[in-house]
Design goal:
Number of strands: 11
Number of helices: 16
Largest sheet: 7 strands, parallel
CATH superfamily of the largest domain: Queuine tRNA-ribosyltransferase-like
Strand order of the largest sheet: 1-2-5-6-7-8-9
CATH class of the largest domain: Alpha Beta
GO cellular component, one term: cytoplasm
Shape: globular
CATH topology of the largest domain: TIM Barrel
GO molecular function, one term: metal ion binding
Organism: Monoraphidium neglectum
Structural class: alpha/beta
Keywords: Cytoplasm, Glycosyltransferase, Metal-binding, Transferase, tRNA processing, Zinc
Subunit structure: Heterodimer of a catalytic subunit and an accessory subunit.
Oligomer: single chain
């Protein structure tokens, strides 16, 4: 399925907490391969975070945390997770980029609890960086050992090799020239196209390099330092100032989507971003809707996690919200009026068919014989090859293919939205685009409650 999302799809995001058990870090290490190979996507960048954007897993966020670790709810239940536990998972998964463990708190947390969250997260960040520093020292020792004429021994069994974040000699020779270029592409966000990092694709097989020694990483991953602070701007500022000078590749704006007032988002984002270096990327976590993603771009975020396409898929919806601003739109007020009129027309046209200005409800009986693509004009694999009637049939017969096709379409549509925002940035029209998009969505909401 990920192959169908090329070239816009850029990478894969995983929730590191899900690898505390079944499989655990130890079990994954015993396979002798990184998670890339374990899931059949060996050539795609991977981002590991401590939250799954598709799950509401932090309903009790922060309530069971202490100075030693936080309480995580995963597929097999809940458990306490220490920074050491988390880094065990990171070393086993071997992502290119990861966000260290953070003390997430609910949006209504007290100031005292928020201060505690910021302090703990900074302490845990230092612990994670110290562990990576030890890994790098081991690497340097290993390189010197081989340069001084080592006898070719590859440094122990596969588990030890993974824990030291290196590949065996056979793969290191083949990958040495490629690694700096790949790392640069990752930092610039150009490895495999553009987008929000919500998709990915891959090729090859687990055994395509000739053994376990070919599967581990050349070097430790890039670190995105978490910026905390909940709903308090001053704590966001304090957290951002503290991590700004850390030896990290970028920053993760955390603690959003935890029940806080969405009206606070612009202030909270601007307060934190103002304290961060402009030459390092910023990942925004927890802000899921199109409006929230757009606000993140306006405030200076570069990368995003998002469960919005997946939530639409789970409900049987094909996303159809407008992506591109009409060429005639302007800031004189005519654009807003046109947006409202377009939203009203779309709502009226789709009211009887289970559709509105943001989505098509393919559960609706209106589509049982509809031979049109999921969304007219869409170029995704699902829309080019299948009809609304077919996906409607798949949904009603509970076929897994319904979710596969909808996920392809919805992720493609979401990536197209980000492409439109990038085009607006390049054209110097982001403010105009944001005003048009928000008005179109606001008008649609007043007519019919969208997703």
């Amino acid at each position: 399925m990920m192959e169908k999302l090329r070239p816009q799809a850029q990478g894969i995001q995983i929730n590191a907490m899900q690898f505390l058990k079944q499989p655990s870090a130890a079990q994954l290490t015993k396979t002798g391969v990184s998670l890339h190979h374990f899931i059949g996507a060996p050539r795609w960048p991977m981002l590991a975070t401590n939250r799954d954007p598709t799950l509401q897993e932090y309903g009790t966020a922060g309530k069971s945390a202490n100075n030693n670790g936080c309480y995580a709810i995963i597929h097999s239940g809940g458990q306490m997770v220490t920074p050491s536990d988390y880094m065990d998972v990171i070393e086993a998964v071997q992502p290119e980029i990861f966000v260290p463990i953070a003390d997430e708190v609910p949006g209504d947390a007290s100031r005292k609890r928020t201060v505690q969250s910021v302090d703990r997260t900074l302490q845990w960040l230092d612990a994670c960086l110290a562990r990576l520093s030890g890994v790098r020292r081991e690497q340097q020792h290993h390189v010197r050992h081989h340069q001084e004429g080592a006898d070719g021994q590859q440094g122990g069994d596969a588990a030890e090799q993974q824990q030291r974040w290196r590949r065996g000699d056979a793969d290191a020779a083949a990958e040495q020239d490629e690694q700096p270029a790949k790392r640069q592409r990752l930092e610039q966000g150009t490895d495999g196209g553009g987008g929000d990092g919500s998709g990915g694709g891959g090729g090859g097989s687990v055994g395509d390099k000739g053994g376990v020694a070919a599967q581990a990483m050349l070097e430790p991953p890039l670190v995105l330092a978490p910026v905390m602070g909940s709903r308090f701007p001053e704590e966001r500022v304090r957290s951002a100032k503290a991590v700004a000078s850390k030896p990290v590749a970028g920053f993760a704006l955390c603690g959003f989507g935890m029940g806080e007032d969405a009206a606070l988002h612009p202030q909270l984002l601007s307060a934190a971003v103002a304290e961060l270096p402009a030459d390092k990327p910023r990942l925004l976590l927890g802000m899921a809707t199109p409006e929230e993603a757009l606000e993140g771009v306006v405030q200076g975020a570069d990368l995003f996690d998002c469960g919005y396409p997946t939530h639409a898929t789970l409900n049987g919806y094909a996303l159809s919200f407008p992506q591109r601003m009409p060429a005639s739109n302007d800031e004189s007020g005519e654009g807003a009026a046109a947006a409202a009129a377009a939203a009203e027309g779309a709502a009226a046209a789709g009211a009887q068919a289970g559709a509105d200005d943001s989505k098509v409800n393919l559960w609706s009986l209106e589509y049982s014989t509809d031979k049109a693509p999921l969304v007219e004009g869409c170029t995704c694999f699902a829309c080019r090859n299948h009809t609304r009637a077919y996906v409607h049939h798949l949904l009603h017969t509970h076929e897994m293919l319904a979710s596969v096709l909808l996920e392809i379409h919805n992720t493609h549509w979401w990536l197209g939205f980000f492409e439109s925002m990038r085009e607006a940035v390049v054209a110097g029209q982001l403010g105009e685009y944001a005003a048009w998009f928000k008005e179109r969505r606001r008008a649609a909401r007043e007519l019919q409650d969208p997703l």
